[in-house]
Amino acid sequence: MDAILSSLDVTYFLLVTLGTVIGILFGAIPGMTATMAVAVCLPMTYALDLNHGLALLLGLYVGGISGGLVPAILINIPGTPSSITTTFDGYPMTKNGEPEKALKLGIASSLFGGLFSAAVLFYFAPTLADWAIKFSYVEKFLIILFALTVIASLCKSLLVGIFSGVLGMWVSLFGVYNMSTGGNGELRIVPEFLSPWLENGFSLLPLLIGLFGLSVIFEEAQKGVHDEHAESVKLAARKRFQWSVFKGQVTNLVRSSSIGTFIGMLPGVGGSAASVLAYSQAKNFSKENDKFGTGHPPGVIASESSNNGLTGGALIPLLSLGIPGDSTTAVLIGAFTLQGIQVGPLFIGENQTTWDVMMIGLVAANLVMFLVMWFAIRHIAKVITVPKYLLYPGIMMMCVVGAYAINSGIMFDVWTLLIFGLFGFVGAKLGLEIAPFIIGFILGPSAEVYFVKSLESFGTLSIFFTKSPIAVFLWVLIALSVGYSIYSHRKNKRLTPSGK
Amino acid sequence: MEKISDFFKVRIDFDQSHLFFPTIVEWVLVVLMLAIVVTHGRHWVARWRETPLGARIRAWEIDKRRLFGCLTLTPVYFAVMEPVGTIYPNTGVGFLLTSYVYGFALSWLFVHDNNRRKTLLMALNALVTPTVVWFVFAHIFRITLP
Amino acid sequence: MKKIAFGMCLAVSTVAASFTAAAADSPLPGNVRIVIGSTSTGGDTYQVSAIVADALSKKLDINAKVDAVGPTAALQAIAKSTDGSTIMLFHDQSYVGNLYGVRGFPDIFKEYKIGPTVAINPGDAFLVPAKSPYKTVDDILKAAGEGKRIRVAIQPGGTSALGYTALKNAVAVRFPGKEGNVVAVNTGSQADKNQLLFDGNADVINGSVQGNEQYTRLPADDQKAMRFVWITARQQTLQQANPEGMGQTSREQLLTYATPAASVTLDGKKNWAFDKEFFLIYNADIKPEVVAALDKALAEIYADGSIKTTLKKSFFIPNFMPAKDAQGYLKAKADETKVLIDKIK
Q: Which residues cross the membrane (chain A) (predicted)?
């Protein structure tokens, strides 16, 4: 106990706060991610001892995941991949003149998700880690498949939506079959002469901000960048935030946070799947599912509570197996090893103090995140009153910095921005659905690896049905999800006979 | 029973495994494309006949100056960034200098009813934003910029 | 308007001043970018690079910054830089990739210049489940010789694949014609390898002392429990590690898993062992002054000694060898490795 208290000095909490604030900054800038924030600040921790270093890094992690909601809600560009689904209802809320409400809703949901996952981490980490290793390639493939069924419930036209999703998957396979995930390192789809640039295909983040950021700017340029006429967003007169929006949303909060924590726990499945799954489940379970996508608060709640639920979840395999649950926790491993601390199945038992200090840091970071953002909201929300002729050049520069930095300085990533800016601009005109495209792109590589590796290990397709009770259960979920989406598409068609 | 399990059997040659999944995806794409043509094709053809392509593009009301200006400026900005950066390698100066110019040019292109006040704002913005971004990221956080 | 013009001049001049303020007496630019052959900022290459970059920054009063760009991009980056503003740090993978014929790995001895070596990671290891019938690497080789199929989980085309190739070779030497019994299960991250072991889809996995040591200390009835069977580093390298070893496993215990105690023969007489060495890679036409300056700086850094403590604390073995010696040494190592790989192809 004394050891814990001696680590919890003023510096400790200052570092948590500093980390959280920097993290929010990184998260809020389109193209900058929590992973980048942690990686960039890692060298700063060399000078600190382990507990203080972790305070900073945990702050960065929580802040970085949370900050992504700001641009998602205000300017329709997800700050991080895991806030894609926040744009679906957050931005429409801004358009309806409720940016402050949307932001506060997102922040409060983030806090809930963060604390929920911290509690799960604290009480169940080793047990859950033992359960998580029951998920082999086969089960992980089914989870990806389950997440892909989301496309069916998000798209406007079933056929075009699925086509867009599969197209996204196809684009994600460009380049070599990555050896670091067990591939054979051979090039496919891409012709040989393009390989100096497309050796590793397109990077997710530049593609994402190209599709969301640049294409919006192009679209506006086409329309003539009229501030006056374009969605006359007025900040709603200082209305007090009504906590009653959360009424009836407890199930949604708990379900979404659990999905976040669960996905975070599975190494390799990837954080973006969490918010996508949570959002679509919130939609499927809702009685008012046609309201989703039009500025419906439960959409923001689902998305934001799940992506913060990820944080504690991703720390579970890290601290109880020594295996990172997502890309950010992979960087955290570096922080441990540089301090000479091993993470593995015996970590918690052997480093009780560090473990307790980390838990306090995680909870503190969530609280700081909430307080900082809650009180800064009014000022942050003013971003949307900046005239576009000043705002767009700034966004463009941020996108460039983010794209260039995502792989530590690759110029092609900046060109990716442009390529997908154009693709999104033209694609939208041709009726392509962007959200399914991105979901396909994000999940494509994991789908490939898990599918092919399952078959390499077992040599038969029937394994996907017979591997384990978990697999059967996942099939039930997949079937329900698909069935429900088709049902609601039919229902909506009947309500609006033209189908448009 | 034997036959059913045989039917599901798959053998993947590791050396060729990079083509296995893409091939499946490509086939699915083709099938979906055909399905879309079958279900929506007639509708498209009808629309095509009603309003020719040229008329429909005109209906979009393209602001040519702004759209094509933006579509020219941006690639130029990206293209010169790296060469300019080689003047002082690894300092992010390529980003900094080109962003001053690009920032101002894009604002100039996008603005309506320009006046002295707006020009001043644009110049200030073009100067301050890149400098702050560069200072914070290239200097404080030591992120590599072109 | 004037104010802005003035402000702009001021900003540009201060900025310009900060760039030219590089170390005047050093042939190296003031800002050095160290690109690494890994995209991970949590892995061993990043750690070694961070330690070396930190030491170089202090020694030469420069800004050295590590960028995890991956092998292809790193080689492309140094191909453009002859003034030493961008240098690369990577390990044996840089030529092993070429020997295995992996895309994106040119012959670095021909197309680039080899710089000094800086450290060794002696942690490359092979593990079996705690309940495995195979207690030692010898059991594994014998079992393969007796016709049992041994599935080894590795990441293809890399240094971890070398251990697999060596196992196969040892079977070929001791039980000719039986080497086909050792088969690779190609996979990716450590998580995937561990998972294959938990699922029973691999008999042996490649891992590391750092990453798997705690698994070897789990109670035997735990599904996750593992046992070391082989550490591929050379005996004399492992002997330089801190006596505490890693975690609760002492150096003495670790040595029982390395040659000669654990024998994987190369040719029936000599055991095969391999050190994963980290070294710098330069542009082929890099200025000789830069090479000399980096050699000198690193020689002083290693003579001073504090870097050795830092490296050893993270289970690395300090191993400085100036560029000229490193070139010949690594070329010889690559030629030896080529013989092994070609034989088992």
A: 12-33, 53-75, 102-125, 131-151, 158-177, 197-218, 357-377, 389-406, 418-443, 463-487
Per-residue confidence (pLDDT) for residue B120, from 0 to 100: 94
Is residue A200 helix, strand or coil?
coil
Same domain membership, residue B68 and residue B45: no
Q: Which residue of C has its CA nearest to A346?
A: C214
Say which of C50, C155, C214 has its CB closest to residue A345. Answer: C214
What is the count of structural domains for chain B?
2
Say which residues have a Cβ less than 8 Å from residue C149's Cβ, sequence separation at least 6.
Answer: C181, C183
In this predicted structure, the answer to whether residue C3 has a pLDDT above a threshold of 70 is no
Q: C270 lies in a domain? A: no
Q: Which H helix or E strand runs over C226?
A: strand C226-231
Residue C140 shares a structural domain with residue C208: yes
**Is-cis flag, bond preceding C260, omega within 30?**
yes
Which residues of chain C lie closer than 8 angstroms to A345, CB-CB? 214-215, 218, 222, 224
Is residue C179 located within the same domain as residue C237?
Answer: yes
- Decide if C66 contacts C36 (C-beta within 8 A): yes
Burial class (CB in 10 A: 0-12, 13-18, 19+), A461: middle
- Give the domain extent around B115: 64-140
**C69 falls within a domain:** yes
Which residues of chain C have a CB within 8 Å of the CB of A268? 189, 191-192
Q: Which domain holds residue C97?
A: 30-121+276-344
Shortest Cα distance, chain B CAs vs residue C241, angstroms:
33
C260 belongs to a structural domain: no
Q: How far apart are CA C277 and CA C95, in angstroms?
A: 12
**Which residues in C120-140 are b (16+ Cβ under 10 Å) and which e?**
bbbbbbbbbbbebebebbbeb
Q: Is residue C15 part of a domain?
A: no
C104 touching A, CB under 8 A?
A: yes
Mean pLDDT of A339-356: 87
pLDDT at A229: 38
Rounded distance, CA C230 to CA C247, Å? 17
Task: Determine contact: A401 vs chain B, CB below 8 A.
Answer: yes
- Chain C CB contacts of B96 under 8 Å are 15
> Tell me, what's the ipTM?
0.92
